[in-house]
């Protein structure tokens, strides 16, 4: 078991480093190309593009400070902090005893390393009564999707992923891309399931442990 954990951590680390390296190589290549432009019109474009690249580099530095690229557990206080600092924020509301949460963990760990433009984290509902009530979390697992500090969509259970436990990481990737929570990449658009146009009817939470479990759905 310990060897598997070490192996999984190495795979995630290698993937994260590969993504960062690819981004840095892309920026270096773009800078080299722009440095060779001589025409006056192209020079204007060059200056504009250089400013854009500097802004992108500043944003990537913020990603590093906010620990983008990692799938981490956070407290309620950290949740608010990251929500204010990360433009794209995906929160997995989980419970240790729910098997479907472990299934989702596996996919989110991979996507966190691949999509460093977004912050991925998890929050234990049994230790976070205030935020669970505030966001009306009543099905476990729930993915709360935040853009610019505001919750824009909730994925409750696995219906958005085809209603099965055997969905792929690419399926999760496509759903998140449709909601603009991650950048689209080649190969993520094969899953074309129509997202629900209406939200599920809200249910009240009477206590911090009274959650619906999607395992039985």
Q: Would you write up a description of this structure?
A:
This protein has 217 residues and is an alpha/beta fold. The protein folds into two domains: 1-66; 69-189, Glutaredoxin. The protein is built from six helices and seven strands, in the order ααβαβαβαβββαβ. The strands form two sheets. The chain has a five-stranded mixed β-sheet with strand order 1-3-2-5-6. Helix 4 (99-114) links the parallel strand 2 and strand 3. The radius of gyration is 20 Å and the shape is elongated. Mean pLDDT is 77; it is low at 187-210.
Structural descriptors:
alpha/beta, Glutaredoxin, 2 domains, two-stranded parallel ribbon, 7 strands, 47% helix
Say how many strands there are.
Answer: 7
CATH H-level homologous superfamily name of the largest domain? Glutaredoxin
Shape: elongated
Structural class: alpha/beta
**Annotated CATH architecture of the largest domain:** 3-Layer(aba) Sandwich
How do the helices and strands follow one another from N- to C-terminus?
HHEHEHEHEEEHE
Q: How far is the first residue's CA from the last residue's CA?
A: 30 Å
The number of distinct structural domains comes to 2
- Average pLDDT over all residues: 77
What is the count of helical runs? 6
Main sheet attributes: strand count, strand direction, barrel closure: 5 strands, mixed
- Give the strand order of the largest sheet, numbering strands 1, 2, ... along the chain: 1-3-2-5-6
Strand share of the residues? 15-25%
Show unreliable segments. 187-210
At the fold tier of CATH, the topology name of the largest domain is: Glutaredoxin
Work out the radius of gyration.
20 Å
């Amino acid at each position: 078991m310990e060897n598997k954990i070490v192996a999984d951590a190495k795979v995630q680390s290698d993937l994260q480093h590969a993504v960062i390296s690819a981004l840095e190589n892309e920026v270096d290549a773009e800078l080299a190309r722009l440095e060779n432009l001589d025409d006056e019109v192209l020079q204007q474009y060059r200056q504009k593009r250089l400013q854009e690249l500097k802004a992108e580099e500043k944003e990537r530095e913020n990603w590093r400070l906010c620990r983008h690229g990692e799938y981490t557990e956070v407290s309620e206080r950290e949740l608010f902090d990251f929500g204010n600092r990360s433009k794209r924020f995906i929160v997995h509301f989980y419970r240790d005893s729910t098997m479907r949460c472990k299934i989702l963990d596996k996919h989110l760990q991979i996507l966190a390393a691949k999509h460093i433009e977004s912050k991925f984290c998890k929050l234990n509902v049994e230790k976070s009564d205030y935020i669970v009530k505030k966001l009306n979390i009543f099905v476990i697992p729930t993915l709360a999707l935040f853009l610019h500090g505001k919750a824009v969509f909730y994925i409750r259970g696995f219906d958005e992923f085809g209603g099965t436990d055997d969905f792929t990481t690419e399926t999760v990737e496509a759903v998140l891309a449709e909601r603009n929570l991650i950048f689209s990449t080649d190969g993520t658009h094969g899953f074309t399931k129509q997202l629900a146009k209406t939200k599920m009817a809200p249910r009240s939470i009477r206590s911090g442990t009274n959650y619906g479990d999607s395992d039985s759905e």
